[in-house]
Amino acid sequence: MKTRVFTLSAIAAVMLSACGEQAAEKPEASAPMNDTQVTIANGTIEGVKDDDILVFKGIPYAKPPVGENRWRSPQPVSEWDGVKATTDYGNDCAQKPFPSDAAPLGKEPAEDCLYVNVWAPQSGEGKRPVVVWIHGGGYVNGGASPATYDGSEFARAGVVFVSFNYRLGRFGFFAHPALSAAKEGPLGNYGFEDQIAAMKWVQENVEAFGGDASQVTIMGESAGGGSVHNLMQTPGARGTFQRAIIMSGGGRSLMGERYLDKGSNGQPSLEQIGVNFAEKHGIEGTGPEALAALRALPEEQVVDGLNLMALFMPQGGVVTYGGPVNDGEIVQGATQTMLEEGKVAKVPVMVGTTSQDIGFANFPDKDALFASFGEFAQAARDAYDPDGSADLQTLVASVGQDFTMQEPARFVAQQMTQMDENAYLYRYDYVAESVRDGKGTPHAAEIPFFFKTEDVKYPEFTQKDAAAADLVFSYVVSFIENGDPNVTRLPEWKPYDGEQHNMMHFNMDAEAVHGQDPWTERLNAVQGATEAFQASTGTE
């Protein structure tokens, strides 16, 4: 257990069914937990003690999605006899690892990957609040095994922490006319179906680890944040969580709109993309033989070089990967539409971004950049470059992240507030002292601080780094416990107010400062331009 030294007085005082089948009877809760053996719905498992917590890794929550189960809904796990050892992560899901991943995988990727992990307090009476982590990676990379995602500190703070893998890339998001003709169940969004199955597993089993199935928070970053948005709208996840934390997850339509059997906005249907992929591998036709041939493809041929680098550096040619799809069942609409229509879970949310978040824009000069704001061009120029001194590279980066992440996060807070739910908006602007470059906090760089694993990510972590981690971690744990992040002796974090445009700013001095967003005018220009464009084109 790591030793910490704190220099900020404000910190020194802070705390440290399966689908389609009837759910199994919930196991008896064991609180306090003091044994490495736990009986869950499918049998008995054995984990390990780690000082004052218990850790269980590699628990199957669905059958391996291989062979005939490739591109099927997650299938129920059979009961097992005896005691299953759950002391190491299961495989991360099949993918081509991304060399620059902020959270490198800890296990070899494989198609057999549907496993869940649990960190639980060993002592204490009563049921504990639960948080379920959903990793990011653009739906093509990532997993639950990176050391940065270790849930030990949550368990030591009295929270049952759960993480899991879900199918990625073409294994998780794929369609083909042969699959549609087979009528085997929902189509296209197998990775999202895995997430729903994992949430149902939590409902059925978490009380065996001392958790409270009625006090569950879902928490995800990037594609994991997008997944939180989808869990908030999809009928299959209703009632499986009571709060949500959305970290750099967009809030309008991060991955674009795509449909199973029709093109949209210049994009082919997911079925056509599947046909393109099949033909690339010499598979013709749309009948059972084609489906059998697709399911017989070796794992590495299904991956076919796909990763984040391939997504962001397209090589041209025929499109062979699509991603999540609006199927009308698992995904029922764009995030923006579902929020505007109030068709999402009515739960408290914590939502925010990093100060140098991800986003893309490409303009040859300032005039072209500001002209892209349409009728809001002058408002944008006044907000981003009032004296004309900003360089183009900085402006493009700022505009790109504002359209992709900053304004959509504020939009989520606005919409949830209109539904009479508290939304706690933040921007994370702390960078570990050993890697500072004078810029803001990059996409995903806040995760080690939210998890209090900054010493894993940054071996040369400092006292200020530790204080920054304890600060945000304290707010996160309080939100998981109460749906309210506020902690005694820390600055008050008020729910978002649409007139005040207030937020919590975690700054470079390891402080939490609450007040009006200094980027309000920037985001107002982005929101105006976005909504004007949508009104003129009939798109979202």
Automatic annotation (TrEMBL):
Carboxylesterase type B domain ranges (all copies): 35-511
Top-level taxon: Bacteria
Statement: the UniProt record of this protein carries the keyword Signal: yes
SUPFAM superfamilies reported for this sequence: alpha/beta-Hydrolases (SSF53474)
EC number: 3.1.1.-
Extent of the signal sequence: 1-23
Keyword vocabulary terms for this entry: Hydrolase, Signal
Pfam families, sorted: COesterase
The keyword Transport appears for this protein: no
Enzymatic class: hydrolase
A single GO molecular function term of this UniProt record: hydrolase activity
InterPro entries linked: AB_hydrolase_fold, CarbesteraseB, Carboxylesterase_B_AS, Carboxylesterase_B_CS, Type-B_Carboxylest/Lipase
Family of the protein in this entry: Belongs to the type-B carboxylesterase/lipase family.
Protein name: Carboxylic ester hydrolase
Lineage: Bacteria, Pseudomonadati, Pseudomonadota, Gammaproteobacteria, Alteromonadales
